[in-house]
Amino acid sequence: MRQGPTSWWTAGPLPDQLDWRPMDELSLGVVALLLLAAFAAGFVDAVVGGGGLVQLPALLLGVPGASPVQILATNKLASICGTATSAATYYRRLRPDPRTFVPMMLLALTGAFVGALGARMIPKEAFTPIVLAALIVVGAYVLLRPDLGERTELRFDGHRHVAAAMAVGFVIGAYDGILGPGTGSFFVIALVGLLGYDFLQASAKAKLANFATNLGALLLFIPTGAVMWKLGLLMGAGNLLGGYLGARTAVARGAGFVRVFFIVVVGAFIVRLGGEVVGVW
């Protein structure tokens, strides 16, 4: 494979997309499994977030010839298709207050851009333990507070509320730029636990903010030529369908369903990542 120009993102030569066409090398079975993973990721992401913990491993297994930066970039392209669809669905049906979500989206995009600049400072072997620890804390917090997120009881008023939403957007956006997995779930729990939204309203605003973080990361990935466009758009179609169905299901079932789904999904992610840390798989 001929090497393209050196990228400031990767601190090394970036594979030239014109020389390697992954769609030509993948079997129909692998493509079908990647589409299924993208659909599942879109559905999970739309309801409670964390779809990257489904889609990213699928890409790593299905496209072993791609570099890490290509995998991350393609994952973001597929994900933004789903987050855009689920965010639009939530917005049409719930009409969240733009005075809150617009500043939060802007700071989330900025945070993702800034976080991505420092992504190389964290060793790769630390990624999984960090995400696992965060998910354990989040899962325990929700599980031990059964009334959490049943109804909206905002903890701040006026400018303080907007400032808190902006801080959530920037901090979690920076996390998405640096690491990424579980970003949607962390947005949901921050909006529920810190700002006082119910789970359904939190999911709506989380999708809007998550769309912004995906966009922020792609603004860095696309100029490097790292995106595998054919595969990313194909998986994006699966993610889009999953995101649409997930958002409609969440709106129809309400905050109680989202809370239960959140606990189940976070529990499953803890088991999967915990098994990876201790070497079970």
TrEMBL record:
It comes from Nocardioides dubius. It is a multi-pass membrane protein. The chain crosses the membrane at residues 26-48, 101-120, 126-144, 164-197, 217-245, 257-275. This is Probable membrane transporter protein. It is found in: Cell membrane. It comes from the Bacteria. Belongs to the 4-toluene sulfonate uptake permease (TSUP) (TC 2.A.102) family. Signal peptide: none annotated. InterPro entries: TM_pro_TauE-like, TSUP. Pfam families: TauE (PF01925). Keywords: Cell membrane, Membrane, Transmembrane, Transmembrane helix, Transport.
